[in-house]
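Show me any protein, keeping tokens residue-aligned.
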Amino acid sequence: MDGQAALAVTVFLVVYAVIVLEAVHRTTIALVGAVCLVLLGVVSQNEAIAAIDWNTLGLLIGMMTVVEITRHTGLFEYIAIKAAQFGGGRPMPLMFWLSVMTALASALLDNVTTVLLVVPVTFALTEILKVSPFPFLMAEILAANIGGTATLVGDPPNIMIGSATGLSFMDFVVNLGPVVFLVQALTCLIFYYLYRRQMAVSEEDRAEIMEIDARTEIKNRKLLQKCLLVLGVTVLGFIAHGWLHLEPATIALGGAALLLLISNLQPEQVLSPLEWQVIFFFLGLFIIVGALEKTGMIRWVAEQALQVTGGNMVFTALLIIWLSALASAFVDNIPFVATMIPLIFAMGQIQPLQLEPLWWSLSLGACFGGNGTLIGASANLVVAGLAARRGVSISFPQYFRLGFPLMLISVIVSTAYVWLRFLN
């Protein structure tokens, strides 16, 4: 290992350790690490800029903007109340429909934004029914990460994989949709089994839910019509982006720009609340991983992995899905996937492998693995933070006792799915 490679590895390990220990905000340490690599001469400024995946960043910013504008309409509150009423104001159907709504919204939007919209409504509904919000919040966390796995735009790891590989929106839906549906259905059944005896409510509280006029939640009907139109066109654009010869980022930013133009909202109203810390975290991370790639460390790790698996396609795919799941349970899945993408490409260069099953293994492992612990995915921490503000504790042990076994079940199902569909 030469001096530059040693510097790249040292910076990477320090940044990863700080992210895991949460000693410094992950965006801050990622940017500090990236700047250090440029100052130390491991990468030049031009090489650092070239290492950034602008398609991923553009897709995130575009979808965040569309969702932020839609948030002003009250659509998400309306849907949540309708979900409660559809279940007759009973807690178990409410939990089911809220989790299904969260999974569907996470597939089309992104999981962090989805939980930010769903959690406040969940607290309002559980307060009326006088039931503990904890199982509802846990069901929504798991559903957000499960649903986000189904599409190109649902979870940051998928955005990164799609951008790097050219896999389309429909590629994700067709190849991952069936297993996502199965895992979500299985998770709902397990929640029903665990909590069905703890959800007794009075007829008066149920009646209060049923009497809510959901239409009053819609704050701006004209804006809602515009948002639904643009969101529909954007999703159709994702589906057809291969035929249109447009990158997903172009479609997302185009939808965001159009909605900004016709919404009559000022740019600062929309752009200020966006999660810019996530964007800058990605930016720093891409530079750090780019330095590892430039110095040859990614290729070296790929060679070692192939020695372990003997180049066997089945063993390689299973190693990736389980390594991704267990690693993503204990560290944020975004930096892990950022490291794994060039590693898989390097495997394909060293030995002829069919890479597509490896991408699906990486996506399923990283996205489902994020459900394993409280720190496994951004959505988990966001919900825990929102709950803490309302006096509801979701501690690491509390989360682990429920989330980790369910994560293992989802990965076992995914392993069987990958083997039967892609490797048999």
About this structure: The longest helix spans residues 396-423.
